[in-house]
Structures are given as structure tokens and as C-alpha cells.
Here is the input.
Amino acid sequence: MKKLNIGLVIAIMTSLLLVATPVAAIGAHTIDFESDTTGSKPNGWQSVGSMVTFFTDSIGADLQVGDYGVQSDDQALAVYWDDPGYLIMDFSVPMYSISLDFGNDDPSYTNPGEEAVLTLYNGATQVGQEKVVMNRNDIMDQTISFSGAVFDSATFYYDVAGPFPGEWTGLIEIVDNIDLEPIVEFTKEITSVEEGGDMDGVLETGESWNWTLEVNIKNLTDQTITVEKLHDRLGGDIEWHVVAWSSGLIGDLEIDYKGKTKKVFLNWYDGFQLDPGQEVWLFTLWISPDVNTGRGTANNPDKNGNKNPKAGHPEYTEAGEHCLNSGATISGYIGDVPIEVSTNPVCVEVVEAD
Here is the structure.
């Protein structure tokens, strides 16, 4: 592994005051449904416990969140009814490990030896499957797990015939405490803020603030990850001042400006590897809103395509949510399996000045 050195591009240095640490992160997490509202849920529903998981009923749209007594651990997700339908879980980032608790293995509606089945897919290709023989006590006291391959969707169902053939062809699945581990822990966070204006901790129109954004990554798998490209993009109303990065790991930085507002694109093409369990700092940005020249968009280019040189003030002129950058993205491989992972953007809320 290459020795980590620090690459640095400097335009303007600012002093920074730590006041907050909002984070856009992808990492290991648990979905326990405790903070979700009870009742019916549509296909494609997301629990508040995961921003990357989408639940679907394979037949109809009969997902329900509720407290099912001993069949669940407080609130859980059920897949109604007693039909061949099953639970589908789609993930917007590549996963590497999953486990879940299950209940409703009713002895009156199952036969000895019947199984709960968890199947994993990467695209249309099945990459794994686990089966657990149900203990048929109707209590949520069993867990099914899988780890060791990249997957982007999973299904879970009870493979039952029941003691009364012909009367039904399935059983309601109830799941809870879904532990998920993606291939990487990928974080982008505001690590410090230099506040302008009236210093009341509220970002208002007309105020000049500066932010420090830091991006880190950790390999959560037991395999080496090869990253071929790392990139990020700043918002059209954002000016960069400093970019620092692990040049000894990720190579040279290429900066491009695109569009009328001269959006900033940050690209590293040299490629690098992450060993199992390895955690590294990738890059840090020092940024602020563009200078408002009084002519609409803060960074109107001049006739030569450069940032507008007219004097002005770095500020937001409109209230609302403003994203500092898009999601940092890596693309590459685990073995021969292509991967691409992005963080969410980090955004700030701007309010009208008093």
C-alpha cells in the first residue's frame, strides 16, 4: 500500500470555527421500525432507519408496520397475506452483509422442517442463499444471516406448504432488526464552520459563511476493493478555496469547470486499493457561497468564461435548502464485480434575514 502524502491546492485560506457536524454517511446500520408510523405501507417504502433500503411486497401491496406481540420485537414489518407473496428488499448501494429476525412461524400453519429462506442478488444474478429451519414456536426468536458477496437486492420468504394443502399457499412473513453492512463506510461531513453575519448560529440570506467538508472511507468487507475513480461536484453557487487530499493514495487531482455557473468537478483517476478493514481520509474541502455580484446567479462568468470579477459579497440571496456539493462517488471493483457507491450531498438551510 502506498504511503499517504498530502496534496494541497490553495486559493484562499480562512480561519475556521467549529460549530456543527452535519453528516452524509453510508455505513452499517439497523432497521428496527421503532420510529416508523404504524399501518399500511406502499411498495418501494423506506423506513426512517435506512436511507438506502426499499421494501416491496412481491404480490399486491400488503406491507404493514405494527406491534405483533411475541411475533415481533415491538414494531416490525409484516408481509400480508397467507399467499405466495414474499418480501423484496432493494438497496441503492452495494451491500455485503445482512441479518434479520423473523417471527410468525405458527405451528398451526407450518410443518416440521419447513424453512425461512433469504436469497441475495446482484442485478439479476443470484449470489447467495441462506435457509433456517423454523422452530415453529410463533415467537420472534430466530435470525437468518448472509455475508461474503456483493448484493443489491434480497428476498425473504417462508417456504411452507401448511398442514391444509389447497387452503393457502404461504404464510405472513414478519421481520425486524434488519442489520445491514454495505461494502464501505463512506462519510462526508462538515467538520467546522466559520460563521458570518450576526453570529446567531442561523444561516441567513446576506451572510458570509465558510465550511470545511471532510470525506473518509472504510472497507467493511473481507476482500480488497479496487477504486478506479473518485469524484465529487460542488454546487453551482459554491466557491472552493482549498482542496487537500491523500495524494500518495489517490493520486493527482483534476479540476474542471462546467456550465454557465462554472460548477466545480473534482476528479481523481489514478486509482487505489482499500485492504479489508482499511480506513483512510480521502480529501477535505474549504468552501463558501459564491460572490453575489448583484446580477442574479452569484457566479455569472465573464465574457471569457471566468468567474465574474466584479466586487461583491459571498452570500446566499435566496432562502431554502442549498446543497454544498453532490455525493462523493467511488467506482471500481471487488474481485471482478463492478461497484459504485455515492454519499448523499451535504446541504444547509438558509432563512430570510430579519
